[in-house]
Amino acid sequence: MKKKWILPIITALVLIVSLWMCRNILCVKSPHGINQTRAFYYQPEDSIDVLAIGSSHVHCGINPAMLWNFYGMASYDFSAAEQPLWETYYYLVEAYKYQKPKVVVLDVFSAAIVKDDYHYDWMTESFYGMRPSLNKLEMLKVSAEEEYYRYYIPDFYIYHTRYENLNKEDFANIFGGVKEKKIFKGFTPGFQRADQSLPFGGWKEFDDYGLSAKSEEYLRKIIELTKENGSELMIVVIPYNMNEHDRATYEQIAAIAEENSVRFINYNDYLYDIGIDVTSDFNDHSHLNYWGSVKFSDYLGRQLKEYYDIPDRTDDPKYSSWEEYSNQLLESVRERL
Questions:
Q1: What is the pLDDT at residue 49?
Q2: Pseudo-torsion of CA 153, 154, 160, 166, nearest 10°?
Q3: What are phi and psi of 46, to 5 degrees?
Q4: Strand pairing of 103-107 and 50-54?
């Protein structure tokens, strides 16, 4: 009797492993949010002291390797391109399932460029990396109109569209890339040098300046959520070629931050102090490059140390992946340059 079960069990196991491997190959990979989210789940539980959330300005501008090298900080860039504040809120809900960050650094760039209740640009970056959960469903409900739900959950809906576009990275992840995910800390460096010495007139110019009602609602939710979980919240604008329409939004955010006794810093006002060279430290009009990220992360780290009680984890073996990540990043930069 027992022998007759052996073949079905083996067949079932082979099928499960095969489907898992196919998923690893066909799932969408991207350094603009999806990879950051997938790797987040592989970080040691309750190890992240500084959690940076928000748009691509985070994973292009906040360099966890530099925060580790300079200050022994265990930080992570848990962000996605153009992520509106309502999605950032649900990201933070997700983060608190696994981590207890001492400080949450919230980038609010998207609040300046997202004025509609639904923002589909880059939305896949926020969804395809997150594990299935009720929290993810709640995020979908506030992020998309019902007729678009099928494009985001379940994410295997779009796997069949990738057959002709598979590349080496897809097959390198056939077994899940667990070690790589454990080491990765979310940072996506850029290596262009784009002169930003002239004001940039881009981004949309809106008739309605300031924060949209939906963005304000979720900004206040984020503030409340961090308080409920005992984290300090630091709201920031990471340097980019800002226009005055954006500044109007940040002034409104600054008032809400002050109302709630939360620190707000628009780092565009401190480029000289940071040491940012506008002719060489930007990857494009919206993002710092690698060299800009080093300068900004050094400055940010000094302020985090000054304002908050963040431990130096350098000699703690639990945090060895940050050392590995730092060494890997520096080696890849040397090879590139």
A1: 98
A2: 90
A3: 55, 40
A4: parallel
* Rounded distance between C-alpha atoms, residue 79 and residue 53, angstroms: 5
Residues 6+ apart with CB under 8 A from 183: 321, 324, 325, 328
| Cα–Cα distance for residue pair 37/77, rounded to 1 Å | 9
Beta strands 50-54; 232-237: pairing state: unpaired
CATH of the domain at 101: 3.40.50.1110
Convert the pLDDT of each residue in 222-246 to its tens digit.
Answer: 999 999 999 999 999 999 999 888 9
Tens of pLDDT, residues 165-186: 666 776 666 655 788 999 999 9
Dist CA 240 CA 127 (whole Å): 25
Spatial separation of the C-alpha atoms in residues 54 and 76, rounded to whole Å: 12
Q: Which tokens sit at 136?
A: 């993810």
Per-residue pLDDT of 259-271, as tens digits, reads: 999 999 999 999 9
Alpha-carbon distance values, 23 to 2, 15, 114, 163 (Å): 32, 12, 33, 12
Domain count, the chain: 1
Query: How far apart are the C-alpha atoms of 294 and 68, rounded to whole Å?
Result: 11
CB-based contact 51:103 (threshold 8 Å): yes
CA–CA distance, 117 with 49 (Å, rounded to integer): 32
Domain span at residue 120? 3-336
* Prior bond of 154 cis (ω within 30°): yes
